[in-house]
Recover the amino acids of this structure.
């Protein structure tokens, strides 16, 4: 066995051993296992069966992470992405009005396109099509939107006819629960305590139980059934809103590719695995992600992507795929903790006037903060880059629509590059998409809606 592990994972060459890899895998898992409990509650807001989503989360994550370890030999774990799941539940199913079955169908299509792009070596074309400033602006815009949803869930903000938004009731149980969880998260985060998010979530959960909002349902049980969400696709209703459907597929594909590429580069750079500034086995890594998404969606979860929390395992010495395989095994064990998901679900809603999710809200606000880091990478001194980026990140939260943000960004980017005769700085595909978005706006204007 020792010789097999050495040949397969090149432990000595990477300056590691079996014990170090297992410890690194455990460390990575502890920093990201919150997704097992958060994902079912978030997708549950779209009326998906929470226990089935938990099953899909664990199985999809386990398969994708195992493939990453065995094919690419990287210490990178994968799971349903925070931000991806919120986009799925609150934008696609909430604001845009798709059913969760239709949203799963769109997610399957985007995952399949990603897989085909990887197999045929075309994923690079998609990466090159979106300008760097707009990539960061889209991520920031989604982060602002998620933070706004989190603040609304927590009860910190509420609707106001005069000002659109105003301060909520700070004495409500929802605000108290969310405040405790958020403070625990950010304090542990700045103190560099591993597992800050899961500890914060547990703090919110405990507070909700003490306040009589949530009911304790236990800790361990047999794995839940995947049947309620397994292969529950609905392609029929997608054509009724074809423009929104195309935009949803694009955003899902965009988020998956760039989240994965960014995480791969960041974590492998930290681990010293880049060769002459390039990432070996990038095709195998992207393949693992794409297959994971297709499998996960088929079981009933949103996009599966590489996790930046993998850097925690790298910091503990993880350098090979054995770290990932350890995480994969731990996700399987996670199937036996479904009662905790039930306990968290009993805290929804807190008020009759608005469905609030105070246990999960702090995580959404924090994820929104994480996604804002890309704002510093936008070229603010170049107005042909800065103005489209600004409109993109501003329009998303104000219109509650990622599609509108991307449309404004693409159209203004194309116009400014044309009038400054800097045509070659934009990919030809971007000009085509800009025209399509412009045509869509014209149609809306004359047809109404």
């Amino acid at each position: 066995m020792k010789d097999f592990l050495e040949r397969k994972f090149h432990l000595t060459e990477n300056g590691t051993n079996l014990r170090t890899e297992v410890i690194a895998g455990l460390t990575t898992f502890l920093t990201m296992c919150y997704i097992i409990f958060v994902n079912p509650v978030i997708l549950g807001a779209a009326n998906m069966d929470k226990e089935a989503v938990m099953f899909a989360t664990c199985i999809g994550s386990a398969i994708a992470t195992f493939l990453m370890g065995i094919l690419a030999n990287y210490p990178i774990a994968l799971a349903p992405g925070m931000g991806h799941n919120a986009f799925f539940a609150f934008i696609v199913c909430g604001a845009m009005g798709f059913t969760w079955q239709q949203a799963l169908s769109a997610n399957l299509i985007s995952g399949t396109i990603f897989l085909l792009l990887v197999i045929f070596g075309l994923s690079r074309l998609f990466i090159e099509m979106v300008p760097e400033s707009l990539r960061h602006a889209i991520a920031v815009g989604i982060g602002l939107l998620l933070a706004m949803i989190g603040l609304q869930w927590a009860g910190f903000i509420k609707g106001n006819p005069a000002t659109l938004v105003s301060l909520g009731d700070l004495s409500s149980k929802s605000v108290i629960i969310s405040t405790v969880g958020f403070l625990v998260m950010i304090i542990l985060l700045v103190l560099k305590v591993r597992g800050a998010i899961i500890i914060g979530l547990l703090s919110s959960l405990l507070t909700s139980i003490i306040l009589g909002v949530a009911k304790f349902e236990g800790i361990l049980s047999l794995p839940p059934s995947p049947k309620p969400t397994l292969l529950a696709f609905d392609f029929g209703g997608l054509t009724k809103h074809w423009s929104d459907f195309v935009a949803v597929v694009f955003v899902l594909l965009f988020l998956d590719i760039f989240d994965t590429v960014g995480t791969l580069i960041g974590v492998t750079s930290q681990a010293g695995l880049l060769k002459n500034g390039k990432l070996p086995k990038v095709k195998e890594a992207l393949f693992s992600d794409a297959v994971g998404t297709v499998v996960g969606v088929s079981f009933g979860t949103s996009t599966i992507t590489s996790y930046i929390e993998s850097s925690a395992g790298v910091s503990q010495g993880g350098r090979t795929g054995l770290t990932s395989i350890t995480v994969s095994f731990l996700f399987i064990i996670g199937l036996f903790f479904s009662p905790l998901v039930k306990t968290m679900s009993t805290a929804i809603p807190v008020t009759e006037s608005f469905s609030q999710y105070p246990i999960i809200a702090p995580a959404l606000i924090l994820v929104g903060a994480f996604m804002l880091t890309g704002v510093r990478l936008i070229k603010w001194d170049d107005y042909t880059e800065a103005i489209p980026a600004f409109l993109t990140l501003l329009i998303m939260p104000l219109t509650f629509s990622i599609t509108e943000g991307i449309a404004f960004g693409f159209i203004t980017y194309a116009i400014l590059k044309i009038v400054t005769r800097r045509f070659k700085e934009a990919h030809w595909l971007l000009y085509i998409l800009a025209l399509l978005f412009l045509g869509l706006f014209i149609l809306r204007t004359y047809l109404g809606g």
DSSP finds 19 helices and four strands in the chain. Strands lie at 78-80, 157-160, 164-167, 304-306. Confidence is low (pLDDT under 50) at residues 350-354.
